[in-house]
Amino acid sequence: MSKDKVIRMEHGAGGETMQALIREVILDNITSRSAGLVGLDNLDDGATINIASTIANNKNSDEIVITTDSHVIKPAFFPNSNIGRLAVSGTVNDLAVMGAAPLALTCAIVVPEGFELDSFEQIIRSMNETAEEVGVPIITGDTKTIERNGLDSIIINTTGIGIADEVIRDCGMCPGDRIILTGTIGDHGISLLAHREGFDLTTDLVSDVAPLWNMIRSVIPIRTIEGRPAISAMKDPTRGGLAGALNEMAQKSGTGIIIEQKDLPIKRSVSSACEMLGIDPLEVANEGKAVICVKAEHAEEVLSIIREHEYGKDAAIIGEATDENSRKVLMRTTIGSMRYVDTPTGDLIPRIC
Fold first, then answer.
1. Which of 61, 70, 130, 190 has CA atoms 20 to 30 A from the CA of 225?
2. Is the pLDDT of residue 201 over 70?
3. Which family does it belong to (predicted)?
4. What pLDDT does residue 60 have?
């Protein structure tokens, strides 16, 4: 491997060159590789999860949650992060907003011939660092190569397996619930767009990509006086942004939503860039935020706990669910008028995750 500077077709052909890539680049940069008898080290056709130890460590948990996602972001490296951190964070967050503790991840990578080997290794290291942040092992995977003219950049698929005491659905919102947004909107999409298109916005815009489980896990156990979960619904506002997430939650739950424009956390740099580019920040993707619907009497408690975490320091209560305007999202503007927040109709910024 020492002589290789870029990915060659042989790196995905199954022979010694591929085995060297796995040993010297992938295994050497992933530290947690097992959740059972068979793990990534064993290089079997699959991996195992020890059910007995899983149950012992999660005594009240009785639901296995599985999610999968493919990541095609362009470029693979962007302000503050890369596709490796994005892939792990996105899958961990999909588990987290369903109330599931991540148990294990799988990873399949398709990489074009000519992709720089140093960049590939950096991506693997980022995946490992992000997985370690939430204590989840990467237990099995696959690597394929393709001709350089068949693919313009690396593609990563990650599947996550988690376990939940009680699954949280994105359809569980009820009238009266308060809606908490865990941080500023639009950071990922706008920073990526500016970087990709070469816009000189004279600002330090960076992506918000982050794994949220350690923040979310602290509020999941909160219960109402009647013993029911205080958290009624959660969702991560990725593609389609906050507008897409809120509309989907409203439509699935059959409630209306009113949000307050004055309470929306948004960085001045993002707001200015959106205004200049003619983009609605509500429709811009986020990769390190969550929408949390919580019973009104516990909203301030949940907000306080979320704000204690690094990823939730800018969290805010942005609105509430209502029994009016069923399946619609409205926003009260800063001048007091009301406007509909519609589901985005197209791909505002393509290849962002």
1. 61
2. no
3. Belongs to the HypE family.
4. 67
Total number of residues shown for the chain = 353
59: confidence class by pLDDT, cuts 50, 70, 90: low
Cβ atoms 185, 270 nearer than 8 A? yes
Tell me how far apart the alpha carbons of residues 61 and 164 are, in angstroms, rounded to a whole number: 5
Compute CA 132 distance to the chain's CA centroid, rounded to the nearest angstrom: 16
Residues 134 and 207 occupy one common structural domain: no
Q: Is residue 3, in this structure, part of any structural domain at all?
A: no
The dihedral through the CA atoms of 195, 197, 203, 207 has a sign that is negative
Query: Are residues 222 and 301 in contact, defined by beta-carbon separation less than 8 angstroms?
Result: yes
Of 164, 191, 209, at which residue does a domain stop?
164
Single out the residue of 136, 87, 85, 135 nearest to residue 109, CA to CA.
Answer: 87
Percent of the chain at pLDDT exceeding 90: 82
H helices within the chain, ranges in order?
16-21, 51-57, 83-96, 117-133, 187-197, 213-216, 241-253, 268-277, 299-307
pTM given for the model: 0.94
210 touches 290 (CB < 8 A): no
Residue 287 lies in a domain: yes
- pLDDT, mean of residues 191-215: 87
Structural domain of residue 311, as residue ranges?
A: 178-340
Query: Same domain, yes or no, for 119 and 80?
Result: yes
Q: CATH no. for residue 201?
A: 3.90.650.10
